[in-house]
Specification:
The protein is mostly beta strands. It is built from 2 helices and 8 strands, in the order ααββββββββ. The protein has one domain (23-146). The strands form 2 sheets. A 4-stranded antiparallel sheet has the order 1-6-3-2, with no helix packed on it. The N and C termini lie far apart (64 Å). Residues 4-26 have low confidence and may be disordered.
């Protein structure tokens, strides 16, 4: 009977301590929720703003960060994008996956709105990296601070 009582006390103690643990580090990590493509990067009309110059800017709400990227590049380019967040630096990768080595004689606005959740106010930096269709590696295209 004493063993059963001790087992119950131990189980209850473990249950109560597990409920009171702080799990904030798991839920407070800046996380990409979705990407909205606009301009030449989308076949759908979008509310993503088009710019005539390459632009990166952020809008912030209580716990959401929206990083808008507008790149004026060749209109024949087809980009695959990805994001990495490490140590308050957001790195956006854009790889041109077009199959043609022919350079188009036109420029188009490729726009992306990366929406992050679990944002807490802090200074964030960004790096935009591009990889042309025939390149082996990415090159830094633009970098700065999101204000």
């Amino acid at each position: 009977m004493k063993k059963l009582f001790l087992l119950m006390i131990t189980s209850m103690t473990m249950y109560v301590s597990s409920c009171s643990k702080d799990n904030s580090t798991a839920t407070n990590t800046l996380t990409l929720a979705k990407t909205v493509k606009g301009g030449c990067s989308s076949n759908v009309k979008s509310s993503v703003k088009a710019f005539t110059t390459d632009t990166v800017y952020a809008t912030k709400t209580t716990d959401t960060l929206s990083m808008n990227v507008a790149l004026n590049l060749g209109c024949c380019s087809k980009f695959v994008d990805s994001i990495n967040v490490t140590n308050n630096v957001i790195t956006a990768y854009f790889a041109d996956t077009s199959s043609s080595s022919i350079t188009c004689n036109c420029i188009c606005n490729h726009s992306y709105n990366f929406i992050f959740v679990h944002y807490t106010p802090k200074t964030l930096s960004y790096i935009i990296k591009l990889k042309s269709h025939n390149a082996k590696d990415y090159t830094i295209y633009k970098q700065g601070t999101l204000n």
